[in-house]
Each structure stands twice: as structure tokens, then as C-alpha cells.
Amino acid sequence: MGDTIINFMQEKEILEKNDNITDTVEINTDENAAGTLDLNEQVTEVSEVEKLNIELQEQKDKYLRLMAEFDNFRRRTAKERLDLIQTAGKDIVVSLLDVLDDCDRAEKQLQSNADISVQKEGVQLVFNKIRSTLSSKGVKAMDSINTEFDVEKHEAITEIPAPNKSMIGKVIDEVMKGYYLNDKIIRFAKVVVGK
């Protein structure tokens, strides 16, 4: 048992000596002798903690840059979206300006000309131009009268007795037309249904 205590004490002394020994760097003191460094070169050793701190700073910097870039992206897309919303109907409005000009001309004709047939013809031309302009932009009227009532397309205002049995469950009258824009319903038709 005494020998193990001595061996243990010797091992402890060896470990303590090794802890006190600093890392030695082979320095070349003579230009003809082998060595890795000259005396004039600075010996810099970076500890593991310093390496981790440097890496942490780099990651923080990358994170901050990424967050700033994302914030700029979000602001830019919000501004673009707002601009798009404000000018979304510009194309339709510009195309309807011609119709508005025709309305002004028709109004002048109504005030200066007493011939009813000429006035009707002018107003009908304006109506046709409105329809053709909207049609060219993808607006299409829904055909509802004498069709089956469909909750996906129609909004029933009221039900009335059907004039004959074949009209039960069908649209008898249309109070307000429904419209499609590029085959998507933009307004439901308000209809009267036979019961």
C-alpha cells in the first residue's frame, strides 16, 4: 500500500509539472540552424475561447445583415403592393375615358337637339360602347333568366308562384345582372325564383 501512495504522489507531481509547462515554440536563433520561426516574428496563439468569440461575432454580423436585408425587402414589397393597389384600375379607367367623352357629346346633343329618335340613337351608341369596352377587358354579363337557380351564381331576392310547372326552381326575373371578370364571378345576380 505504501508503494501505491508513492506512485500516486509521483504521478500527481508529474501532472502538476506538466500543467506549469507552457507550450514552447521552436524559434530559429541561427539562420543556419533548423527552426520554424525567426526571433523577429511575433508568436501569436489564439485560444479556443477567442476563436469562438470571433466566430460568434461573425455570426452576429451575418444575422444583423440578413435581418436588415429582410426588413428592406418587406418595406419594398409593401410599397410596391400599395402602388399596385392604387393603380390597379388604371387600365379600365383609361379605356372608359373614351366612353365618358361620348357621354359628354351625347349630353350636348340632348340639350341642343329636340329630335327624340336622334337622341335615342346617340344614347344607344354610348351604351354599346360601354358594353364593348368592358367586354374587351374581360367583363361578361351572366345569363340568368330561364336557367336553374344556382346558389353559386345567384342571390334570390324573392320567390313567386311559377307561371307553369317547368319554371319551378328556375329564375323568372333578374333584378340586377351578375357579371364575370375573366370567368370569375365579380357580382352575383339578384333574381326572382319560381316556386
Give a verbal description of the structure.
The protein has helices spanning 2-20, 48-87, 90-112, 116-136; strands spanning 27-28, 37-38, 139-141, 154-160, 171-176, 179-181, 184-187, 189-194. A hairpin with a 2-residue loop joins strand 6 (179-181) and strand 7. Among the domains are: 56-88; 96-137; 139-195, Head domain of nucleotide exchange factor GrpE (Nucleotide Exchange Factor Grpe, Chain A, domain 2). It is an alpha/beta fold and 195 residues long. The strands form three sheets. The chain has a three-stranded antiparallel β-sheet.
Brief descriptors of the model:
195 residues, three-stranded mixed beta sheet, 8 strands
What is the terminal-to-terminal distance?
A: 111 Å
Largest sheet: 3 strands, antiparallel
Order of strands across the main sheet: 3-6-7
The CATH topology of the domain at 139-195 is given as: Nucleotide Exchange Factor Grpe, Chain A, domain 2
Shape: elongated
The radius of gyration computed from the alpha-carbon positions, rounded to a whole number of angstroms, is 44 Å
**What helical percentage do the residues reach?**
40-55%
Judged by helices, strands and strand pairing, the structural class is: alpha/beta
CATH architecture of the domain at 139-195: Roll
The CATH H-level homologous superfamily of the domain at 139-195: Head domain of nucleotide exchange factor GrpE
The count of helical stretches stands at: 4
Q: Could you name the CATH class of the domain at 139-195?
A: Mainly Beta
Please indicate the percent range of residues in DSSP E strands (runs of 2 or more). Answer: 15-25%
Overall pLDDT, averaged?
81
Q: Which stretches are low in confidence, meaning pLDDT under 50 for 5 or more residues running?
A: 21-25
* H and E order: HEEHHHEEEEEE
- DSSP strand count: 8
